[in-house]
Amino acid sequence: MNLPPEFIRNIEGGFGDAGRQFLANLPASIDEASQRWGLTDVWPSPTLSYNFVAFAKRASTTSFDGTSQLSAQREVVLKMGVPDRELNSEMAALRLFNGEGACRLIDCDEEKYWMLLERLKPGIMLLALEDDEEATHIAAEVMQKIWRPAPEDNVFIRLSNWFDGLKKLRATFNGGTGPFNEKLVARVERSVKDFFAENHKPVLMHGDFHHYNILSSERGWLVIDPKGVIGPAGYEVGPLLINPWGELSSEKNYRRLTQRRIDILHEHLGFERERIREWGLAHSILSSWWSFESHEDWRYTADLAEMFANLS
User: Is 145 exposed, middle or buried (0-12, 13-18, 19+ CB in 10 A)?
Assistant: First the structure.
């Protein structure tokens, strides 16, 4: 199987020996999943990152008077990943979303980290909409469709654990913040602590909600690839506000654009504008730290953090 070199680097670099084992077993895994779920014409997605994703066809089975009959084939998505908690959380989240505002989980194998998913067609990213205001209205509507009361299930990712990463930032720089703006890091530490202390019921949310993970379909705009995160609902706006990735800082009027997005989110979600700005700032700092840890460019989100801090 010819896999993109970047995908191989991502898997080996991100998962080490477990990643190499995953790649070695991948052809056999695809064959096994194809036999189990009756898949044909399996072809990999042209854009692989940290999971193997392939399109396939599957014959649907319907039953009439106790007899099974094969109907026309439908297109599905096969997703496989290196054993990782995030994939378990994703499967559980999709099961709870139950196709409302999200792609449907048709079947899965939690032990093998395999998913069989509804294929969304035409599958155009929300990114493709040129009207940013329209895109933000759509995003806010989809956001509200998927939120669920937080279940008592330990399979899901806790947002508080993500923000504990800022403690590691401090430890890395002996209590300081190194190249990061110390005033902004301290501001985020205070605001996030306050948000978690509030008497609001946490929700199950997407956790990586942005223009690349919202696709068009015959059922409307739907999300894919949820992280399955439990925490204050306001966090969900953060990833949306800093995307499309790498383009906001080059947008001539990106402060005005961001302010308009905040107004629209306030209109739909009812969150105070200040709260939305603070979550945008908090996610920018957290994302910047994650990039720093991964030896990637962290300055883009650090610059956006400065922008959020200076919004009126």
Answer: middle
Residues 179 and 227 in one domain: yes
Same domain, yes or no: 292 and 154: yes
Domain range for 225 is 124-310
Among 213, 236, 230, residue whose Cα is nearest residue 282: 236
CA angle, 114 then 24 then 40, to 5°:
50
Same domain, 148 and 275: yes
Last residue of a domain, one of 119, 151, 168: 119
Query: Is 145 found in the same domain as 231?
Result: yes
8 Å CB contact between 174 and 202: no
CATH number of the structural domain spanning residue 282? 3.90.1200.10
The per-residue pLDDT string of the chain (312 residues; one tens digit each, 9 = 90 and over) reads: 789 999 999 999 999 999 999 999 999 999 999 999 999 999 999 999 999 999 999 987 654 445 555 567 899 999 999 999 999 999 999 999 999 999 999 999 999 999 999 999 999 999 999 999 999 999 999 999 999 999 988 999 999 999 999 999 999 999 999 999 999 999 999 999 999 999 889 999 999 999 999 999 999 999 999 999 999 999 999 999 999 876 666 666 788 999 999 999 999 999 999 999 999 999 999 999 999 999 999 999 999 999 999 997
